[in-house]
Amino acid sequence: MLFQDQVCIVTGATSGIGRAVAEELASKGAVLVLVGRDQAKGDALAMALAERGARALFFAADLTDPHAPRGIVQATLESFGRIDVLVNNAGMLINGSALECTDEQWDQVLDLNVSAAFRLSREVLPSMLKQASGSIVNVASDWALMGAKGATAYCVSKAALTQLTRCMALDYATQGVRVNAVCPSDTDTPMLDLAYEGDDREWKVQALAASIPMGRVAHVGEVAKAVAFVASSDASFMTGALVPVDGGTSAQ
C-alpha cells in the first residue's frame, strides 16, 4: 500500500474533505493523526478507522492558537516517531465583498486558512528535513486560481495559500520535501451550506453545478483521491503544483 506505516497528519479531519482524506489515506496503510476542534467527533472517527484496521489518534486543537502546531507535532513524534505527510485542510468561508468584510472576519479567515497552515508546516519541516523525505499538501480552492464575487477574504486566503505552497516547494526541493496544493471547486460538504444562505440545499447544489463545465459539484472522495495522489510517492516528481479538482471551472 502506498502509505504503509507512513505517519500522516490531517487537519480539519472530522468532516467533509478532511474526513474523506483521512479515510482514503487509512485505506492505503497510513497511520493517522487527526486534528480538529470537536473531541467527540474526533474520537469517533479514530475509533471507526481503528475498527477497519488503521492506527489513528485524535488531537483536539484550535489551529488559530499559535501554540497548537507545536503540541500537535510533539504528540505525533512521541506517539509514532516520525512525520511523513501533512495535509493542511482546515479552513473556513465567510461570505462578503470588501465593503462587507469586517476586520474581525478578515483576520479570522486569513488566520485559519493561511497562518495556521504556515505554522504547522513550519513545525513539521525539521522532522521531514532530518529524514530527507516528506510531503505537504495544502487544500486550497479553485478560487485561488481566479477571482470570485462575494468572498473576498476567502479568495485572498486561498490564493495566499497557493503562493505559500510554491515558495516552500522551491525552498526544500533539493532536500526531499515536496509541497503541493489541491484546488477543489464546490464540493458536497457542510461548507457548501454557506453558499446562498437561506435557500434550499438542493437548489443550491443545482445552482452551483450550473456554473461547472461537468455539470455537478465534486464528491469528497474525488478530492480525497487527488490529495492522496499528490501526497504519495506516485507523484514523486511533483512539487509546487497547484492541482485543480474543479470539473473544468478554471479552464474557462
TrEMBL record:
Pfam short name (any one): adh_short_C2
Residue ranges of domain Ketoreductase in the record: 6-187
Gene3D superfamilies found in the cross-reference section: NAD(P)-binding Rossmann-like Domain (3.40.50.720)
Entry superkingdom: Bacteria
Listed InterPro entries: KR_dom (IPR057326), NAD(P)-bd_dom_sf (IPR036291), Sc_DH/Rdtase_CS (IPR020904), SDR_fam (IPR002347)
Family of this protein: Belongs to the short-chain dehydrogenases/reductases (SDR) family.
Protein name per the record: NAD(P)-dependent dehydrogenase, short-chain alcohol dehydrogenase family
Source species: Pseudomonas cuatrocienegasensis
